[in-house]
Amino acid sequence: MNASRCIVSRLLAALTLLGFARCAREEAPRPAAARVERSASEAGALHDAALPPGAAVLPLAAPPRAEAQAFQTLAPGLSVLADRRTDAEGHEHEWLVTRIDLQQHRLQARALGDAPFARLLDEAGVLVAVNGGFFAPNLEPSGLLLSGGSLLGRARSGGGSGVLAVAEQRARLLKRGEALPEGADFAVQCGPRLIEPGGALGIHSDDGQRAARTAACIREAGRELDLVVTLRKGHLGGGPGLLQLAQWLAGPLAPGDASGCEAALNLDGRPSTDVVVAGRPELVRLPLGPVPFALLVAH
Hints:
Low-confidence stretches: 1-66
Mean pLDDT: 81
Order of helices and strands: HHEEEEEEEEEEEEEHEEE
Distance between the termini: 99 Å
Number of helices: 3
Oligomer: single chain
Structural class: alpha+beta
């Protein structure tokens, strides 16, 4: 009898110790970094959802990649980079950059009217095309639009704070109302100015708006122009804030770049954001709504 009681006592003691150990493991606080990572990923499941008041928010590093992404040549003087960027909220974005040597290629504006942007996929000679320029409900341009010397839209106060102009194979960023350089054969008015001429940020605070974006980045004293399209992965129509985009453009756009944009202009975004790249169907992103004008490079 005493032996039985001893066995039972030992079993109860062992079970008690196991239970204590289990509770200790469950109640032990997790490392702070683990809590922040989980909160950021849960917030990413909702569109820009806010964390509970007082919760710490730390930017997450981009997932490691096997090798650095590089530009792929579409034609001499024209290349494209498909990469990704992670914003300060931990959201991952597609990062598509088309790099144009303006000494070899001419930027054009093409009026599409109510035709779908996808028609450019089948148009012979089109190498790359993106959206650009604001437009009214009747699909008319809301600001200055000039292509090949032909005026498609006149400058307006509500058409945007900046003008991207190309004259004598060099791109420049002008303020709204500033005279076009002599010999300008391309110009588009939109905004805001993300990077002011000289490299200073043109955006100084976060307005809280998140959307897909298209931007123009001037490099190499205007001889090179980058068309940048960025969209939030897995979130239709989503993308970075304007401050985040400006900060990205202020630094290198691609591995190997020594510096960022010398000037940059927002070219529109939201449902209008799109890109077509000849021979690269995996990079095609079609808009969610009508886009009456395309900025493109063609043979």
